[in-house]
Amino acid sequence: MSDEVRDMIGTALAGEPALGLEFDQVVADGRKRRTRRRAGALTAAAAGIVTVVAAATALSGQPDRTPTRPAGPASTAAPADPGCVLPARSGGYPDDPRGTASAAELRESGRLTEAFRRITLPLPAGVEADPLALCVIRDSWGGSFKLTGDQTIFVYLRSRGGQPPGECVAHPGTQCSARTLPDGSTALVTSTDPTVVDVDVWRADGTYVRLAENRGDGSKPRALGDDALLALATAPELKVELSGPPVPAAPSDRRAAELDAVIATALPAGTTAKPTPGSDRGWRFRISQGGYKAYADLTDTKGTGSALVYLEAPAEGAVTCGNQPNCEPIDLAGGRKGTLTTTQMPEGVTVLALNARAADGTSITLHTSNAAGSGSGGRSRPTPSLTEADLVRIADLPGLHW
After folding, report:
1. Whole-Å CA distances, 5 to 27, 122, 123, 371
2. Which pLDDT tens digit goes with each residue over 128-169?
3. Which residues cross the membrane (predicted)?
4. CB 384 within 8 A of CB 352
5. What is the pLDDT of residue 172?
6. CB–CB of 128/69 below 8 Å?
7. Residue 286, phi then psi, degrees to nearest 5
8. pLDDT tens profile 160-214
9. CB contact at 8 A, 185 and 204
10. Which residues, other chains included, contact 346 with Cβ-Cβ below 8 Å and sequence gap of 6+?
11. How many CB atoms lie under 10 A from the CB of residue 139?
12. How many Å is the Cα radius of gyration of the chain?
């Protein structure tokens, strides 16, 4: 199979297990690398933002308001924090930073940054914290600060937007516990290993907070235990006062199982599905990249090909071809519009891709090809496993939505 084909399939399967590797190992290793990458990137970004804001304050003739640590009482003499914006495409956050902010978002950034300074962090003796700036992301705010000893705390918060509490997701090697807090908030504490811990809290006051502690190389004990992280995540100072758009439910194993039932009978008669190498799912959904993916090798009398279904959270926006070659608009049930792209690849491989939105705004991506998922050589059947009519029929399934 050519590099071009591998790139296309690799893009569709981003977040899936590499060939010949066990999924649980990929998840564990990938999460460590991702968290450590974002530790460096976010700490550098936050430090740079704080430096820029401090410099701007000095240029305006006002004293530098940057504290030596994020905890402790606020100074009544300090000017109001002007707020800050994360650069576009900064990585490591649940939202993709847009790089711009409204005046209201900037004010909320400054207010949250100042409010965080009033929180007393329960740090062990000898451990200090760098300053934290909670900058605008995208209808959300976040930043990170380093602790003495190469440990980093990540902070992300937004309006809950009516989102129901999340549920623990089962992944091998991952430990997760759900807790109902005294004020009615719901919290999840998740860890892949002792060096990386995430705390998600759906607060009763309408705020969602995510905290993560990364111990760097893991050579030192955690600075903040689970209870300390929960106390920080529920601190009154972190209440978001600027309302945001509605937020859909977080992906869950329960919904993935419901979606399994939706596509269970969607394959053409005489077609059987089996897992691709390195996977154990086979035409069943798993949570991947914040959405739901089902991927399998499909076999009938003509041979074996592959197919992918990927659902992303509801969003606004029309589905169009743009300037993409070999793309044509198509009509779907309920007056919905979609696009169908046919791509002829080297080694006789054909890839059909359908993009659409469900009635609730769920992004639906369907791929099928005449190459098996093993990646061993070009085409493995004359035509893709699913036809255009098959793809349209699947996209029109009433239950195929978030």
Report:
1. 24, 52, 51, 9
2. 999 999 999 999 999 999 988 778 999 999 999 999 999 999
3. 39-59
4. yes
5. 82
6. yes
7. -125, 155
8. 999 999 999 988 889 999 999 999 999 999 998 777 899 999 999 999 999 998 8
9. yes
10. 2, 4, 5, 378
11. 18
12. 24
Q: What share of the chain is helix, strand, coil (3-state, %, to 5)?
A: 25, 25, 50
Distance (Å, rounded) from C-alpha 98 to C-alpha 150?
29
pTM: 0.77
Phi-psi region of 317 (alpha: psi -120 to 50; beta: other; left: phi over 0): left
Separation CA 111–CA 82 (nearest Å): 8
Place of tokens 């006051």: 205
How many angstroms separate the CA atoms of 38 and 49, rounded? 16
In single-letter form, the type of residue at position 369 comes to S
Here the tokens at position 115 are 């409010």
Q: How many CA atoms lie within 13 A of 85 on its CB side?
A: 16
Residue 267 contacts residue 283 (beta carbons within 8 Å) = yes
State both tokens at 77.
Answer: 């003499």
CA 377/CA 270 separation, integer angstroms: 25
Tokens 């080694």 locate to: 347
